[in-house]
Amino acid sequence: MLSPEISFWIMLSVSLGFAGWFGWKHGKHSALGAGMAASLLAGTWFEIVVLDTRINVTMATAIILLFVYCTHSWREIFRFLGPLDYLIGAITIWHVIVDTYYGEQPLAVAAQAYGQWMLPYAAGRYAFLHRESLPKLAPVFAIVGALVSVLCLTEAWTGVNLWETIFVSRDDLVNFNGQLRYGIAYRACGPTRHAIFLSNVLLTLVPFAVLLTQRGIDWFPKLGKWNQWLGPVLLVVLLLGVASSISRGPVVTLVLAACLAFAWLYRPAAWTVFALLVISMAWIASDWEGFVRLLETDSNDRKRAAVLVVDEQEESVVYTGTRNRLVNLQVYVPILIQGGPLGYGTIDSTGFPPENLPGLPTDPQVRKRLGIVDNAFLNNGLRFGWVGLALFTGLFFMASSTAFQLSRRASTYFFPLDQRYFLAAATLTIAFLFEIATVFWSYDYAFWVLFGFGLIAGLSSQLKRPDFVE
To answer: Which has the minimum average pLDDT: 14-23, 211-220, 429-438?
Structure first.
Protein backbone atom coordinates (compact mmCIF):
# COMPACT_ATOMS: atom_id res chain seq x y z
CA MET A 1 0.00 0.00 0.00
CA LEU A 2 1.21 3.48 -0.88
CA SER A 3 1.75 6.33 1.57
CA PRO A 4 -0.50 9.43 1.56
CA GLU A 5 2.40 11.50 0.21
CA ILE A 6 3.12 9.19 -2.72
CA SER A 7 -0.60 8.98 -3.49
CA PHE A 8 -0.68 12.78 -3.42
CA TRP A 9 2.16 13.16 -5.93
CA ILE A 10 0.75 10.51 -8.27
CA MET A 11 -2.70 12.08 -8.45
CA LEU A 12 -1.33 15.63 -8.60
CA SER A 13 0.69 14.55 -11.64
CA VAL A 14 -2.47 13.10 -13.19
CA SER A 15 -4.42 16.32 -12.57
CA LEU A 16 -1.71 18.62 -13.90
CA GLY A 17 -0.95 16.30 -16.82
CA PHE A 18 -4.59 16.25 -17.86
CA ALA A 19 -4.79 20.03 -17.44
CA GLY A 20 -1.77 20.49 -19.70
CA TRP A 21 -3.15 18.17 -22.37
CA PHE A 22 -6.61 19.72 -22.30
CA GLY A 23 -5.20 23.25 -22.37
CA TRP A 24 -3.00 22.35 -25.34
CA LYS A 25 -5.99 20.92 -27.22
CA HIS A 26 -8.70 23.44 -26.29
CA GLY A 27 -6.82 26.59 -25.29
CA LYS A 28 -4.87 27.73 -22.26
CA HIS A 29 -7.94 29.14 -20.52
CA SER A 30 -9.41 25.63 -20.32
CA ALA A 31 -6.50 24.13 -18.40
CA LEU A 32 -7.57 25.34 -14.97
CA GLY A 33 -11.06 23.84 -15.16
CA ALA A 34 -9.82 20.57 -16.64
CA GLY A 35 -7.23 20.14 -13.90
CA MET A 36 -9.82 20.83 -11.20
CA ALA A 37 -12.14 18.23 -12.69
CA ALA A 38 -9.36 15.63 -12.75
CA SER A 39 -8.51 16.36 -9.12
CA LEU A 40 -11.93 14.99 -8.15
CA LEU A 41 -10.47 11.53 -8.77
CA ALA A 42 -8.00 11.92 -5.89
CA GLY A 43 -8.83 10.93 -2.33
CA THR A 44 -9.23 13.93 -0.07
CA TRP A 45 -6.85 12.26 2.39
CA PHE A 46 -4.02 12.15 -0.19
CA GLU A 47 -2.10 14.96 1.50
CA ILE A 48 1.24 16.49 2.22
CA VAL A 49 1.96 18.84 5.12
CA VAL A 50 3.55 22.23 4.37
CA LEU A 51 4.19 24.64 7.26
CA ASP A 52 1.80 22.68 9.49
CA THR A 53 -0.92 22.96 6.83
CA ARG A 54 -2.54 19.94 5.21
CA ILE A 55 -2.65 20.28 1.42
CA ASN A 56 -4.57 17.75 -0.65
CA VAL A 57 -4.49 17.19 -4.41
CA THR A 58 -7.42 19.49 -5.18
CA MET A 59 -5.88 22.35 -3.21
CA ALA A 60 -2.47 21.87 -4.81
CA THR A 61 -3.99 21.70 -8.28
CA ALA A 62 -5.87 24.95 -7.67
CA ILE A 63 -2.78 26.70 -6.28
CA ILE A 64 -0.53 25.68 -9.19
CA LEU A 65 -3.02 26.26 -12.00
CA LEU A 66 -4.19 29.59 -10.58
CA PHE A 67 -0.57 30.71 -10.50
CA VAL A 68 -0.22 29.67 -14.14
CA TYR A 69 -3.48 31.44 -14.97
CA CYS A 70 -2.25 34.64 -13.35
CA THR A 71 0.87 34.60 -15.52
CA HIS A 72 -1.08 34.69 -18.78
CA SER A 73 -4.36 36.39 -17.80
CA TRP A 74 -3.46 38.63 -14.88
CA ARG A 75 -5.38 41.56 -16.39
CA GLU A 76 -8.65 39.69 -15.86
CA ILE A 77 -8.26 39.05 -12.12
CA PHE A 78 -9.99 42.14 -10.76
CA ARG A 79 -12.11 43.15 -13.75
CA PHE A 80 -15.91 43.17 -13.70
CA LEU A 81 -16.34 42.17 -10.06
CA GLY A 82 -19.86 41.46 -8.79
CA PRO A 83 -21.76 40.99 -5.51
CA LEU A 84 -20.56 37.40 -5.06
CA ASP A 85 -16.95 38.52 -5.39
CA TYR A 86 -17.40 41.17 -2.72
CA LEU A 87 -19.17 38.71 -0.41
CA ILE A 88 -16.41 36.11 -0.63
CA GLY A 89 -13.86 38.88 -0.07
CA ALA A 90 -15.82 40.07 2.97
CA ILE A 91 -15.97 36.65 4.63
CA THR A 92 -12.26 36.12 3.95
CA ILE A 93 -11.39 39.48 5.55
CA TRP A 94 -13.76 38.80 8.46
CA HIS A 95 -12.02 35.46 9.05
CA VAL A 96 -8.72 37.33 9.36
CA ILE A 97 -10.20 39.98 11.65
CA VAL A 98 -11.81 37.48 14.04
CA ASP A 99 -8.86 35.11 14.39
CA THR A 100 -6.37 37.97 14.67
CA TYR A 101 -8.55 39.51 17.39
CA TYR A 102 -8.32 36.23 19.29
CA GLY A 103 -4.53 36.28 19.20
CA GLU A 104 -3.49 34.31 16.13
CA GLN A 105 -0.62 35.42 13.93
CA PRO A 106 -2.03 37.68 11.15
CA LEU A 107 0.00 36.32 8.22
CA ALA A 108 -0.75 32.71 9.14
CA VAL A 109 -4.44 33.55 9.51
CA ALA A 110 -4.48 35.36 6.16
CA ALA A 111 -3.02 32.28 4.44
CA GLN A 112 -5.54 30.02 6.15
CA ALA A 113 -8.45 32.30 5.26
CA TYR A 114 -7.33 32.48 1.63
CA GLY A 115 -7.06 28.70 1.40
CA GLN A 116 -10.43 28.07 2.99
CA TRP A 117 -12.53 30.67 1.18
CA MET A 118 -10.83 32.46 -1.67
CA LEU A 119 -8.83 29.59 -3.21
CA PRO A 120 -11.78 27.33 -4.16
CA TYR A 121 -13.88 30.32 -5.17
CA ALA A 122 -11.13 31.77 -7.37
CA ALA A 123 -10.54 28.38 -9.02
CA GLY A 124 -14.20 28.23 -10.03
CA ARG A 125 -14.40 31.86 -11.10
CA TYR A 126 -11.38 31.89 -13.36
CA ALA A 127 -12.02 28.42 -14.77
CA PHE A 128 -15.37 29.70 -16.12
CA LEU A 129 -14.57 33.33 -16.79
CA HIS A 130 -14.01 32.96 -20.53
CA ARG A 131 -16.30 32.36 -23.47
CA GLU A 132 -16.96 28.71 -24.31
CA SER A 133 -15.70 27.60 -20.90
CA LEU A 134 -19.03 26.08 -19.89
CA PRO A 135 -19.67 23.99 -23.03
CA LYS A 136 -16.03 22.88 -23.11
CA LEU A 137 -15.70 21.91 -19.46
CA ALA A 138 -19.20 20.65 -18.61
CA PRO A 139 -18.61 17.28 -20.35
CA VAL A 140 -15.33 16.85 -18.44
CA PHE A 141 -16.92 17.46 -15.04
CA ALA A 142 -19.92 15.28 -15.90
CA ILE A 143 -17.75 12.37 -17.06
CA VAL A 144 -15.47 12.57 -14.02
CA GLY A 145 -18.54 12.71 -11.75
CA ALA A 146 -20.05 9.69 -13.50
CA LEU A 147 -16.77 7.77 -13.19
CA VAL A 148 -16.59 8.49 -9.46
CA SER A 149 -20.24 7.44 -9.21
CA VAL A 150 -19.60 4.09 -10.91
CA LEU A 151 -16.73 3.36 -8.52
CA CYS A 152 -18.94 4.36 -5.58
CA LEU A 153 -21.76 2.13 -6.78
CA THR A 154 -19.22 -0.69 -6.83
CA GLU A 155 -18.30 0.22 -3.25
CA ALA A 156 -21.96 0.23 -2.22
CA TRP A 157 -22.35 -3.25 -3.72
CA THR A 158 -19.15 -4.83 -2.41
CA GLY A 159 -18.18 -2.70 0.59
CA VAL A 160 -14.70 -2.21 -0.95
CA ASN A 161 -13.42 1.35 -1.37
CA LEU A 162 -11.14 1.33 -4.43
CA TRP A 163 -9.24 4.46 -3.36
CA GLU A 164 -8.23 2.73 -0.15
CA THR A 165 -7.51 -0.55 -1.92
CA ILE A 166 -5.32 0.90 -4.67
CA PHE A 167 -3.71 3.79 -2.80
CA VAL A 168 -3.90 4.25 0.96
CA SER A 169 -6.45 3.89 3.76
CA ARG A 170 -8.34 6.95 4.96
CA ASP A 171 -6.99 8.87 7.92
CA ASP A 172 -8.86 9.19 11.21
CA LEU A 173 -9.93 12.84 10.91
CA VAL A 174 -13.53 11.71 10.38
CA ASN A 175 -15.07 8.65 12.01
CA PHE A 176 -16.83 6.60 9.33
CA ASN A 177 -17.38 2.91 8.78
CA GLY A 178 -18.96 1.72 5.56
CA GLN A 179 -21.74 -0.26 7.20
CA LEU A 180 -24.54 -2.15 5.49
CA ARG A 181 -27.57 0.13 5.72
CA TYR A 182 -31.23 -0.84 5.55
CA GLY A 183 -30.04 -4.30 4.58
CA ILE A 184 -29.64 -2.98 1.02
CA ALA A 185 -26.09 -1.78 0.42
CA TYR A 186 -22.94 -0.43 2.03
CA ARG A 187 -22.57 3.29 2.52
CA ALA A 188 -20.07 4.47 -0.08
CA CYS A 189 -17.69 7.34 0.67
CA GLY A 190 -15.58 7.16 -2.50
CA PRO A 191 -12.71 9.68 -2.60
CA THR A 192 -14.01 11.55 0.49
CA ARG A 193 -13.85 10.87 4.21
CA HIS A 194 -17.58 10.34 4.74
CA ALA A 195 -20.59 9.15 2.76
CA ILE A 196 -22.49 12.43 3.14
CA PHE A 197 -19.42 14.38 1.99
CA LEU A 198 -19.36 12.18 -1.12
CA SER A 199 -22.99 12.92 -1.93
CA ASN A 200 -22.49 16.63 -1.41
CA VAL A 201 -19.55 16.68 -3.81
CA LEU A 202 -21.54 14.80 -6.46
CA LEU A 203 -24.51 17.13 -5.96
CA THR A 204 -22.34 20.06 -7.05
CA LEU A 205 -21.67 18.19 -10.34
CA VAL A 206 -25.31 17.47 -11.17
CA PRO A 207 -25.85 20.76 -13.11
CA PHE A 208 -23.08 19.77 -15.56
CA ALA A 209 -24.87 16.51 -16.35
CA VAL A 210 -28.18 18.36 -16.61
CA LEU A 211 -26.61 20.67 -19.21
CA LEU A 212 -25.54 17.67 -21.29
CA THR A 213 -29.16 16.57 -21.65
CA GLN A 214 -29.70 19.50 -24.04
CA ARG A 215 -30.16 18.17 -27.54
CA GLY A 216 -28.98 19.80 -30.73
CA ILE A 217 -25.40 20.16 -29.49
CA ASP A 218 -22.63 17.69 -30.35
CA TRP A 219 -21.13 17.36 -26.88
CA PHE A 220 -19.02 14.43 -28.09
CA PRO A 221 -18.67 14.86 -31.87
CA LYS A 222 -17.10 11.46 -32.46
CA LEU A 223 -20.13 9.66 -31.02
CA GLY A 224 -22.49 10.82 -33.74
CA LYS A 225 -26.11 9.87 -33.07
CA TRP A 226 -25.20 8.56 -29.60
CA ASN A 227 -24.71 12.15 -28.45
CA GLN A 228 -28.37 12.50 -27.54
CA TRP A 229 -28.17 9.53 -25.17
CA LEU A 230 -24.90 10.11 -23.36
CA GLY A 231 -26.09 13.18 -21.44
CA PRO A 232 -29.13 11.46 -19.87
CA VAL A 233 -27.02 8.38 -19.10
CA LEU A 234 -24.37 10.47 -17.33
CA LEU A 235 -27.10 12.24 -15.35
CA VAL A 236 -28.69 8.97 -14.22
CA VAL A 237 -25.31 7.53 -13.22
CA LEU A 238 -24.47 10.69 -11.28
CA LEU A 239 -27.80 10.59 -9.45
CA LEU A 240 -27.19 6.94 -8.56
CA GLY A 241 -23.78 8.00 -7.28
CA VAL A 242 -25.46 10.51 -4.97
CA ALA A 243 -27.73 7.72 -3.72
CA SER A 244 -24.79 5.31 -3.24
CA SER A 245 -24.00 6.99 0.09
CA ILE A 246 -27.38 5.69 1.37
CA SER A 247 -27.86 9.10 3.01
CA ARG A 248 -31.29 10.68 3.32
CA GLY A 249 -30.26 14.34 3.25
CA PRO A 250 -28.74 14.42 -0.25
CA VAL A 251 -31.70 12.52 -1.73
CA VAL A 252 -34.13 14.98 -0.12
CA THR A 253 -31.95 17.79 -1.51
CA LEU A 254 -32.38 16.41 -5.03
CA VAL A 255 -36.14 16.10 -4.61
CA LEU A 256 -36.43 19.63 -3.24
CA ALA A 257 -34.30 21.05 -6.07
CA ALA A 258 -36.46 19.21 -8.64
CA CYS A 259 -39.65 20.63 -7.09
CA LEU A 260 -38.21 24.15 -7.13
CA ALA A 261 -37.13 23.79 -10.77
CA PHE A 262 -40.56 22.46 -11.72
CA ALA A 263 -42.23 25.39 -9.98
CA TRP A 264 -39.90 27.87 -11.74
CA LEU A 265 -40.50 26.40 -15.20
CA TYR A 266 -44.25 25.96 -14.84
CA ARG A 267 -45.56 28.85 -12.79
CA PRO A 268 -49.05 27.34 -12.21
CA ALA A 269 -47.27 24.38 -10.60
CA ALA A 270 -45.69 26.75 -8.09
CA TRP A 271 -49.01 26.89 -6.23
CA THR A 272 -49.10 23.10 -6.07
CA VAL A 273 -45.57 22.98 -4.71
CA PHE A 274 -46.41 25.70 -2.21
CA ALA A 275 -49.55 23.83 -1.09
CA LEU A 276 -47.58 20.61 -0.63
CA LEU A 277 -45.00 22.53 1.40
CA VAL A 278 -47.67 24.03 3.66
CA ILE A 279 -49.35 20.64 4.16
CA SER A 280 -46.02 19.00 4.94
CA MET A 281 -45.09 21.70 7.44
CA ALA A 282 -48.49 21.43 9.10
CA TRP A 283 -48.14 17.64 9.41
CA ILE A 284 -44.62 17.93 10.84
CA ALA A 285 -45.74 20.56 13.35
CA SER A 286 -48.73 18.47 14.46
CA ASP A 287 -46.77 15.22 14.83
CA TRP A 288 -43.15 16.18 15.39
CA GLU A 289 -42.23 13.04 17.28
CA GLY A 290 -43.77 10.87 14.59
CA PHE A 291 -41.82 12.75 11.93
CA VAL A 292 -38.54 12.19 13.78
CA ARG A 293 -39.33 8.48 14.20
CA LEU A 294 -39.99 8.30 10.47
CA LEU A 295 -36.49 9.63 9.85
CA GLU A 296 -35.05 7.03 12.23
CA THR A 297 -35.56 4.21 9.77
CA ASP A 298 -32.07 2.77 10.27
CA SER A 299 -32.18 -0.12 12.74
CA ASN A 300 -28.54 0.49 13.71
CA ASP A 301 -29.45 4.06 14.62
CA ARG A 302 -32.18 2.80 16.94
CA LYS A 303 -29.87 0.25 18.54
CA ARG A 304 -27.45 3.03 19.47
CA ALA A 305 -30.20 5.12 21.06
CA ALA A 306 -29.48 6.42 24.56
CA VAL A 307 -31.15 8.60 27.16
CA LEU A 308 -29.28 11.86 27.52
CA VAL A 309 -29.56 14.57 30.19
CA VAL A 310 -28.25 17.63 28.36
CA ASP A 311 -28.77 19.97 31.30
CA GLU A 312 -29.44 19.00 34.91
CA GLN A 313 -32.32 21.47 35.01
CA GLU A 314 -34.02 19.99 31.96
CA GLU A 315 -35.75 16.73 31.16
CA SER A 316 -33.80 13.87 29.61
CA VAL A 317 -33.98 13.34 25.84
CA VAL A 318 -33.66 10.29 23.62
CA TYR A 319 -30.42 10.57 21.66
CA THR A 320 -29.77 8.89 18.29
CA GLY A 321 -27.69 9.80 15.26
CA THR A 322 -30.74 11.40 13.68
CA ARG A 323 -31.73 13.33 16.82
CA ASN A 324 -28.15 14.55 17.21
CA ARG A 325 -28.97 17.43 14.85
CA LEU A 326 -31.87 18.52 17.03
CA VAL A 327 -29.95 18.27 20.30
CA ASN A 328 -27.13 20.24 18.66
CA LEU A 329 -29.53 23.13 18.13
CA GLN A 330 -30.69 22.95 21.73
CA VAL A 331 -27.11 23.15 23.03
CA TYR A 332 -25.22 25.30 20.54
CA VAL A 333 -27.72 27.97 19.42
CA PRO A 334 -27.65 29.73 22.85
CA ILE A 335 -23.84 29.54 22.77
CA LEU A 336 -23.82 31.06 19.27
CA ILE A 337 -26.08 33.91 20.40
CA GLN A 338 -23.85 34.52 23.40
CA GLY A 339 -20.82 34.70 21.09
CA GLY A 340 -22.00 38.00 19.62
CA PRO A 341 -20.77 39.54 16.34
CA LEU A 342 -17.25 38.07 16.59
CA GLY A 343 -18.02 34.53 17.71
CA TYR A 344 -15.29 32.50 19.40
CA GLY A 345 -12.62 32.23 16.69
CA THR A 346 -11.18 29.17 14.99
CA ILE A 347 -9.18 27.71 17.88
CA ASP A 348 -11.91 27.81 20.52
CA SER A 349 -14.63 26.52 18.18
CA THR A 350 -12.54 23.67 16.75
CA GLY A 351 -12.55 20.13 18.07
CA PHE A 352 -14.92 17.22 18.72
CA PRO A 353 -16.32 18.62 20.93
CA PRO A 354 -15.04 22.22 20.75
CA GLU A 355 -13.65 22.22 24.30
CA ASN A 356 -13.26 25.97 24.84
CA LEU A 357 -16.84 27.09 24.25
CA PRO A 358 -18.78 28.38 27.26
CA GLY A 359 -22.04 26.75 28.31
CA LEU A 360 -21.37 23.19 27.17
CA PRO A 361 -22.80 20.34 29.29
CA THR A 362 -20.53 19.45 32.21
CA ASP A 363 -20.96 15.66 31.92
CA PRO A 364 -17.97 14.34 29.86
CA GLN A 365 -20.08 11.61 28.26
CA VAL A 366 -22.73 14.10 27.17
CA ARG A 367 -20.06 16.42 25.76
CA LYS A 368 -18.59 13.53 23.80
CA ARG A 369 -21.99 12.54 22.43
CA LEU A 370 -22.59 16.11 21.25
CA GLY A 371 -19.04 16.55 19.96
CA ILE A 372 -19.87 16.61 16.25
CA VAL A 373 -21.79 19.77 15.43
CA ASP A 374 -23.67 18.55 12.36
CA ASN A 375 -24.73 21.96 11.15
CA ALA A 376 -22.67 24.15 8.82
CA PHE A 377 -24.42 27.30 10.02
CA LEU A 378 -23.57 26.53 13.63
CA ASN A 379 -19.99 25.70 12.64
CA ASN A 380 -19.45 29.06 10.98
CA GLY A 381 -21.60 31.03 13.43
CA LEU A 382 -19.66 29.73 16.43
CA ARG A 383 -16.41 30.44 14.64
CA PHE A 384 -17.12 33.89 13.16
CA GLY A 385 -20.13 35.16 15.10
CA TRP A 386 -23.31 36.77 13.86
CA VAL A 387 -21.51 38.72 11.14
CA GLY A 388 -19.73 35.64 9.81
CA LEU A 389 -22.98 33.67 9.84
CA ALA A 390 -24.76 36.41 7.89
CA LEU A 391 -21.96 36.54 5.29
CA PHE A 392 -21.89 32.74 4.99
CA THR A 393 -25.65 32.48 4.50
CA GLY A 394 -25.57 35.43 2.12
CA LEU A 395 -23.25 33.51 -0.21
CA PHE A 396 -25.96 30.91 -0.85
CA PHE A 397 -28.72 33.44 -1.43
CA MET A 398 -26.57 35.59 -3.68
CA ALA A 399 -25.35 32.58 -5.68
CA SER A 400 -28.89 31.28 -6.23
CA SER A 401 -30.19 34.75 -7.11
CA THR A 402 -27.38 35.27 -9.63
CA ALA A 403 -27.97 31.85 -11.18
CA PHE A 404 -31.69 32.58 -11.55
CA GLN A 405 -30.84 35.87 -13.27
CA LEU A 406 -28.46 34.08 -15.62
CA SER A 407 -31.15 31.52 -16.48
CA ARG A 408 -33.36 34.34 -17.83
CA ARG A 409 -30.60 35.52 -20.20
CA ALA A 410 -28.98 32.18 -21.00
CA SER A 411 -30.28 31.83 -24.55
CA THR A 412 -28.95 35.30 -25.41
CA TYR A 413 -25.57 35.43 -23.72
CA PHE A 414 -24.70 31.74 -23.74
CA PHE A 415 -26.22 30.65 -27.05
CA PRO A 416 -26.71 27.86 -28.06
CA LEU A 417 -27.06 26.84 -24.41
CA ASP A 418 -30.47 27.17 -22.76
CA GLN A 419 -31.37 27.83 -19.15
CA ARG A 420 -31.13 24.28 -17.76
CA TYR A 421 -27.62 24.49 -16.28
CA PHE A 422 -28.34 27.79 -14.50
CA LEU A 423 -31.71 26.61 -13.22
CA ALA A 424 -30.19 23.40 -11.86
CA ALA A 425 -27.41 25.36 -10.16
CA ALA A 426 -29.87 27.86 -8.65
CA THR A 427 -32.33 25.31 -7.26
CA LEU A 428 -29.60 23.03 -5.92
CA THR A 429 -27.98 26.00 -4.17
CA ILE A 430 -31.26 26.76 -2.40
CA ALA A 431 -31.78 23.10 -1.53
CA PHE A 432 -28.22 22.98 -0.17
CA LEU A 433 -29.29 25.42 2.54
CA PHE A 434 -31.32 22.61 4.07
CA GLU A 435 -28.72 19.92 3.40
CA ILE A 436 -25.81 21.64 5.12
CA ALA A 437 -28.01 22.40 8.13
CA THR A 438 -27.59 18.69 8.94
CA VAL A 439 -23.92 18.23 7.99
CA PHE A 440 -20.59 19.36 9.46
CA TRP A 441 -18.93 22.01 7.25
CA SER A 442 -16.04 19.88 6.02
CA TYR A 443 -13.48 21.03 3.45
CA ASP A 444 -13.98 17.69 1.67
CA TYR A 445 -17.15 19.07 0.09
CA ALA A 446 -17.00 22.75 1.11
CA PHE A 447 -14.27 23.27 -1.50
CA TRP A 448 -16.65 22.26 -4.27
CA VAL A 449 -19.57 24.30 -2.92
CA LEU A 450 -17.36 27.41 -2.96
CA PHE A 451 -15.96 26.39 -6.36
CA GLY A 452 -19.55 26.40 -7.63
CA PHE A 453 -20.13 29.90 -6.26
CA GLY A 454 -17.02 31.08 -8.08
CA LEU A 455 -18.24 29.39 -11.25
CA ILE A 456 -21.52 31.31 -11.12
CA ALA A 457 -19.59 34.55 -10.53
CA GLY A 458 -17.36 33.83 -13.52
CA LEU A 459 -20.31 33.19 -15.82
CA SER A 460 -22.05 36.31 -14.51
CA SER A 461 -18.95 38.35 -15.29
CA GLN A 462 -19.33 37.41 -18.95
CA LEU A 463 -22.53 39.43 -19.15
CA LYS A 464 -20.57 42.56 -18.32
CA ARG A 465 -18.08 42.05 -21.15
CA PRO A 466 -20.11 41.70 -24.38
CA ASP A 467 -17.11 42.72 -26.49
CA PHE A 468 -14.68 40.44 -24.68
CA VAL A 469 -12.70 38.30 -27.09
CA GLU A 470 -10.48 35.39 -26.12
So the answer is: 211-220
